[in-house]
Specification:
With 141 residues, this protein is an alpha+beta fold. It has helices at residues 3-15, 64-77, 82-96, 119-137; strands at residues 29-34, 41-49, 52-61.
Length: 141
């Protein structure tokens, strides 16, 4: 994917994020994630039914990378079962850490494939993904 297209996708998902805005519904699992090194502070909500993410939302105050990453992440994960989600998150983390990853399963999240060149932005891209990973690790979903 060329650099201009990546920039356009990130900007679009920052200015018009998908699934932004929390819902007042106790059936959603929720987690707040913040960064000690920048402004990023977001809450992620997941609705899981029969082992599958059927809906998700996020909100908070965050930079362009974190906001767009949350938007793209939720679009990627909605409709996937937990095992698929775990593989996608692992692949995304590997991509950010410049390890081997499966580009086929990352969909639009591939726009962050060179974020490691800006070490201070890696956390911004990863924060929402860490939130979902932490929610899933609770095991009561």
């Amino acid at each position: 994917m060329d650099k201009d297209l990546k920039r356009e996708i990130i900007l679009e998902n920052y200015q018009n994020p998908k699934n932004k805005g929390l819902v007042d519904d106790k059936s959603y699992h929720e987690i707040n994630m913040d960064s000690e090194s920048c402004i990023d502070n977001i809450t992620v909500q997941l609705k899981i039914e029969d082992g599958k993410i059927v809906d998700a939302h996020f909100d908070g105050e965050a930079c362009a990378i974190c906001t767009s990453s949350a938007s793209i992440m939720l679009e990627t994960l909605i409709g996937k079962d937990i095992k698929e989600v775990e593989k996608i998150i692992e692949s995304f983390e590997n991509m950010i850490d410049e390890k081997d990853y499966d580009s086929e399963i990352l969909e639009l999240a591939l726009v962050y494939d060179d974020i490691s060149k800006q070490a201070n932005r890696k956390k911004c891209a990863l924060l929402p993904w860490w939130g979902v990973k932490k929610l899933l690790s609770k095991g009561d979903l």
